[in-house]
Amino acid sequence: MTEQPDSIRQLAERLDRDVKSIHTDLQVLTDYDIVHFEQAGRAKRPFVPYDTIEVSLEISTPRPADDTAPA
């Protein structure tokens, strides 16, 4: 977060990941209003406009009825 990338491509290079995968991940984060974009010439520059992000995650085990396959 301290060194914002100039583009999605640059972020993909930093993370050693495919540009398409990064784009898909960023779209999800955009849908949740976590990542924003600004136009930087022909590129879209992703940025996070927050100092901190708090995430609440609930994980549960499947109920026995969820494990059965339909007959």
3D structure, described in words:
This protein is an alpha+beta fold and 71 residues long. It has a domain of 49 residues: Arc Repressor Mutant, subunit A, CATH 1.10.10. Helix content is 30%, strand content 14%. It has two helices and two strands. It has a two-stranded antiparallel ribbon with strand order 1-2. Helix 1 packs across helix 2. The longest helix is centred in the middle third of the chain and has 13 residues. It is elongated, with a radius of gyration of 18 Å. The termini are far apart.
Which range best describes the helical content: under 10%, 10-25%, 25-40%, 40-55%, 55-70% or over 70%? 25-40%
Distance between the termini: 50 Å
Order of secondary-structure elements: HHEE
Return the average pLDDT rounded to an integer: 88
Uncertain stretches of 5 or more adjacent residues: none
E-strand count: 2
Q: Nutshell version of this structure?
A:
This protein is α+β, with helices and mostly antiparallel strands and about 70 residues long. It is built from two helices and two strands.
Features:
2 helices, 71 residues, Arc Repressor Mutant, subunit A, two-stranded antiparallel ribbon
Task: Describe how the helices and strands are arranged.
Layout lengths: L7 H8 L3 H13 L4 E5 L2 E5 L24
Antiparallel strand pairs: 1-2
Helix pairs in contact: 1-2
